[in-house]
């Protein structure tokens, strides 16, 4: 048995982790744009990345290391993605690290970037900024702000996991993500830190187990970026570990970060869980749920608070899964609007369903009626603010 308890603070409260964020001159508004995570002792590190075929330079740099390498430093910048920069992009990362005054303290340093695609890194600003770091700093708040792009707010979490043997470990995360989010990771960076004594193989396994129901189950706009990264760093300082407890704690952290991203979907006001039940196969359940979370017609209906079940049914049919309108049941929370070929959408029912859509979060349930497989995907509404933000993104 184990207990997972939320606690106050940032990742700097985890034993052995240091972090900070500063303004290095990348953001013209003076906000933080460069941060770091540092540990005295090298960490086991595992990561999953975007499925976009054009992976950014920081991802290529990470993947150039042999599997099961360790690191003690991650440098993170916003405003510039260092993507589609070719070999020069990776060379710039190596040049940056070789120019740091504290390079002798670093073990396999890593970099992560987010921002505009198609520009080389401003090395002079980054080198000067990084050389001003105090590696003993503990400011998770500054770091959380440094990695933001179009985010309306920082995204952090922290938990303590108490084990049956009396030992405990902490796990927490800092993340960014609000737009270009699609169910194949998302335009997001997420750094999860823990003092659990977790082996690399278990960490990688836990990441892959949990990604499908968290970061791979969310959608803001159906786009997948070049830099998407989920990275787990484990320094083992607590000397505590239980595999089942770690897998569940990691799921809790990943799910919380994913939900924060959907809720912050560049102007989003609504978060919807699209639960597909009783599909013929697991693949069908996933396909239909993700189609609903991705549909622009569905998203704009959510924005307009319009419980148009026709858009829901049409999207399910267009997803090409096995389905039959005489077996399909559609509900907004517990309000049934379509029941196995029967339209329940009278004036009273529509008013009840409309009240559901006026809430900040709710569930749209689609019972396919052909099997026993289920999946939940998460999405948000899409409105005028999204267009405004992305029309001005480079400015």
TrEMBL record:
Site (Involved in the stabilization of negative charge on the oxyanion by the formation of the oxyanion hole) location in chain: 114-115
Pathway entry: Amino-acid biosynthesis; L-arginine biosynthesis; N(2)-acetyl-L-ornithine from L-glutamate: step 1/4; Amino-acid biosynthesis; L-arginine biosynthesis; L-ornithine and N-acetyl-L-glutamate from L-glutamate and N(2)-acetyl-L-ornithine (cyclic): step 1/1
GO biological processes: L-arginine biosynthetic process; ornithine biosynthetic process
Any one annotated GO CC term: cytoplasm
Active-site residues per Swiss-Prot or TrEMBL entry: 187
Ligand binding (substrate): 149, 176, 187, 266, 390, 395
Localization terms from the record: Cytoplasm
InterPro entries membership: Arg_biosynth_ArgJ, ArgJ-like_dom_sf, ArgJ_beta_C
UniProt-annotated site: Cleavage, residues: 186-187
EC number(s) stated in the UniProt entry for this protein: 2.3.1.35, 2.3.1.1
Signal peptide start and end residues: none
UniProt GO MF annotations: L-glutamate N-acetyltransferase activity; L-glutamate N-acetyltransferase activity, acting on acetyl-L-ornithine as donor
Primary subcellular site in the record, as a coarse category: cytoplasm
Catalytic activity: N(2)-acetyl-L-ornithine + L-glutamate = N-acetyl-L-glutamate + L-ornithine; L-glutamate + acetyl-CoA = N-acetyl-L-glutamate + CoA + H(+)
Alphabetically ordered keywords of this record: Acyltransferase, Amino-acid biosynthesis, Arginine biosynthesis, Autocatalytic cleavage, Cytoplasm, Multifunctional enzyme, Transferase
Gene3D superfamilies in alphabetical order: ArgJ beta chain, C-terminal domain, L-amino peptidase D-ALA esterase/amidase
Family assignment from sequence similarity: Belongs to the ArgJ family.
Function, as annotated: Catalyzes two activities which are involved in the cyclic version of arginine biosynthesis: the synthesis of N-acetylglutamate from glutamate and acetyl-CoA as the acetyl donor, and of ornithine by transacetylation between N(2)-acetylornithine and glutamate.
Subunit architecture: Heterotetramer of two alpha and two beta chains.
Protein name, per record: Arginine biosynthesis bifunctional protein ArgJ
Organism: Aliarcobacter trophiarum LMG 25534
Phylogenetic lineage: Bacteria, Pseudomonadati, Campylobacterota, Epsilonproteobacteria, Campylobacterales
